[in-house]
Amino acid sequence: MPETSAGELAREQKYVAALYERLDVLRERTRRQLDDVLAQGASGTHQNRSERDTFAVMYAQRLARLWAVENRLCFGRLDHADETSLYIGRIGLSDDEQHRLLIDWRAPVAQPFYRATPAAPMGLTRRRHLHTKGRKVTGVDDDLLDLDRLTDADRATLNGEAALLAALDERRTGRMRDIVATIQAEQDAIIRSDLNGVLVVQGGPGTGKTVVALHRAAYLLYTYRDRLERRGVLVLGPNPTFMRYIDQVLPSLGETDVLLSTIGDLYPGVTAVRSDPPEAAAIKGSVRMAEVVAAAVGDRQRIPDRPLEIRLDKFTLRLDVKTFEAARAKALRARKPHNEARPVFVRHLLNTLTRQAARKLGRGMLDEADFAELREDLRTEEPVRAALNRLWPYLTPQRLLIGLFTSAQRMAAAGLTEREREALLREPPRPGEGGAWWSDADVPLLDEAAELLGHIDEGVVRAARIAEEERRERIAYAREVLELTGMADIMDAERFAARQEAEETQLTTAERAARDRTWAFGHVIVDEAQELSEMAWRMVMRRCPSRSMTIVGDIAQTGSSAGAASWGRMLDPYVGGRWREAVLTVNYRTPAESMAVAARVLELVGPDLKAPESVRETGERPWALRVAELSELGPLVREEIVRDEESGVGRLVVIVPASAEREIGALVTAAVPGAVAVPGPAALDAPVAVLAVADAKGLEFDSVIVVEPSRILGESPRGPSDLYVAVTRATRRLGVVHTGVLPAALTGLADRIR
Ligand SMILES: Nc1ncnc2c1ncn2[C@@H]1O[C@H](COP(=O)(O)OP(=O)(O)OP(=O)(O)O)[C@@H](O)[C@H]1O
């Protein structure tokens, strides 16, 4: 950082202090507004209450936004040729007279902060980066953009990349940080790209795809707030650990109302916890499964090929094949989903049964009311109900798929081959297993099934009954509370209960969207998009009929057996070639020394692929160590920690083949206190984590040890991509530990001296 005169720092400190004062005033004002709205209580008309709820959500969100921007509220200053200056920060601030004090980084006038260069200064003479700690300005560094105006002193301190390099060199905390202060021009162009259409951002590891996608979400919400606030923005990522890794970025940019989800979480009411073996995942991910699920539904509409007798107390009724066929044809003609077509099928059969019953009862011609009454009587007869349920059962997506995957016969009827059936056949869920039965690859199939099955009337009825019971319970509880607190005289139980309920229904857009399978988002961002299967794309596209999407990923890193080999193959079925691509080329994470190793691994993925260029060097060569047994790993990791600490390196990850995750996890956790060997938030917070490649995807660590690279290579058809992911996770140091021979791509690493 260049020397800055004390006077200059003091001037910036004064300005920044005033910004924080203003922030405090606004927080206090918004808190009071929220309190006032909440104090109005649940009384008034329905419209009053709903307006009050809307205001309460709005003030609460505004308050959260104001609290989220505390750190590095202001990080830049633009000096224009006409000698005016603008301060750039996380949000815009004005005083009560509407003078602008701070410009939101997403506003058009802030754009030169990211794009101006000496060759194209965009009207600027200087771009200043302000460094702050808490509310204190600790330093500034300047890019002088009007070279004619430079004084000799200015020339001596010209320092374009200082802020970026300082940011990249910082120790990692286990959580991704925002980059508002150092967004680079090629990234800014993506962040501010038009809202409409499908934008694909292809880029190698560490090129900032994830962080750029998140800043784009914040930019779009700011620029198109009216359009997006109602429909919401969805950000999809590969696994829960990754979601945890990125979940602070948008709040730190003042955006709290974006739904972050994995594919495994996207179907309301199901959380996928299993992952399928590669072969099963590939079958379930193939678009052919759309036909299989449709055939499985059709299989549940199959009619008997012989007549059916239904014995009642007084007589026996009989349905013949012709009647079944007519009922089914009518139901299919309705072109409705399975459950919604059921009433058509059922009505036809019931009418036939009613006519038979009338004849048997000797009642000949019935008028309309008597006919309806008799039909209703029959419908409630247990044998009739059971027969109708067998013929055209109400189905939930869960019931359909459990029925399918637990029966080789049903799978065959739905068109799966013998080999596919063997790969997919499963035991039914054990009692209480419920949610744990589902895998990531099942979720798009549930969604597909839900489309074909439609709503269940009975379910709606049941839900309404449960809601009514809950309402009654709530009133009873409210009555108790009021009696206990002696407030029964001043407030009635129903009003008290309604007030509580109102608090529960004050949902944000993201919360409402998360509960609704049919929600159409205003914009969808897919990260690590190369991992999505064809079936997953169908599910995602359903969530985004407007096709306003940002898709970020790297085809060279595809690890899933059902993932993408090209963007066109995945997207063309939906947008027919109408997608635009932006390419990121600079790697901000991995030092040049590790990237040289990664480039050789990349040749195994595809000889024509080009690794991104690193923006910095660390001077440390990646190392390799051959050990006789993996049990040597524990002491070795301990040594590495000491070494890392001595050189100021923070967090370490041991990346292992999936098949050795448990064994190596046990070795390392036994040898290193505080080490964590299960994916999830704990792995992000621990000083040492052991992760399989799939769980390390998208993450980064100061120091990385890759174990048994040959096994990673050989473990799946996508082995080379997996090894490429593994060797590109380190921000500082990379080492390789192996028992056998090193893959050729890794020869040439420095020997590690012990
Ligand atoms: N302009 C920038 N200023 C500061 N840091 C940056 C910038 N761009 C990227 N980074 C940092 O580089 C690292 C890599 O970014 P990110 O994880 O978004 O890359 P990626 O392309 O998604 O990588 P991968 O494909 O490996 O998942 C992050 O620490 C990110 O904060």
Walk me through this protein's architecture.
The strands form 5 sheets. This protein has a 6-stranded mixed β-sheet with strand order 3-4-2-1-5-6. Strands 9-8-12-13-7-14 form a 6-stranded parallel β-sheet, sandwiched between helices. The protein has 32 helices and 22 strands. Helix content is 47%, strand content 15%. It is globular. Adenosine-5'-triphosphate is lined by residues 164, 167-168, 179, 182-184, 187, 203, 205-211, 554, 557, 588-589, 698, 700, 728. Adenosine-5'-triphosphate (ATP) is lined by residues 164, 167-168, 179, 182-184, 187, 203, 205-211, 554, 557, 588-589, 698, 700, 728.
Helix content: 40-55%
Report the span from N to C terminus.
37 Å
Question: What small molecules are bound in this structure?
Answer: adenosine-5'-triphosphate
β-strand percent reads 5-15%
Would you count the extended β strands for me?
A: 22
- Integer-rounded radius of gyration: 31 Å
Q: What's the main sheet like?
A: 6 strands, mixed
Shape: globular
Low-confidence stretches: 154-160
Strand order of the largest sheet: 3-4-2-1-5-6
| Classification by helices and strands | alpha/beta
Number of helices: 32
Give the overall average pLDDT.
Answer: 86
Kindly summarize this structure in a few lines:
With 754 residues, the protein is α/β, with parallel strands linked by helices.
Q: What secondary-structure arrangement, pairings included, does this model have?
A:
Layout: H1 6-39, H2 46-68, E1 74-80, E2 85-89, E3 93-94, E4 100-104, H3 112-115, E5 124-133, E6 136-144, H4 152-156, H5 162-169, H6 185-191, E7 198-203, H7 209-223, H8 225-231, E8 233-237, H9 240-246, H10 249-252, E9 259-262, H11 278-285, H12 288-299, E10 308-311, E11 316-319, H13 321-333, H14 338-360, H15 368-379, H16 382-391, H17 397-405, H18 408-413, H19 418-424, H20 443-453, H21 457-485, H22 493-505, H23 509-515, E12 523-526, H24 534-542, E13 549-553, H25 567-575, E14 579-584, E15 586-587, H26 592-605, E16 613-614, E17 623-626, H27 633-646, E18 652-656, H28 661-671, H29 681-685, E19 688-692, H30 693-696, E20 701-707, H31 709-715, H32 719-727, E21 730-738, E22 750-751
Helix pairs in contact: 1-2, 6-7, 7-8, 12-20, 13-14, 14-15, 17-20, 20-24, 21-22, 26-32, 27-28, 31-32
The site of adenosine-5'-triphosphate (ATP) has 23 residues, from helix 5 and helix 7.
Protein name: DNA helicase
Binding site for ATP: 203-210
GO molecular function, one term: DNA binding
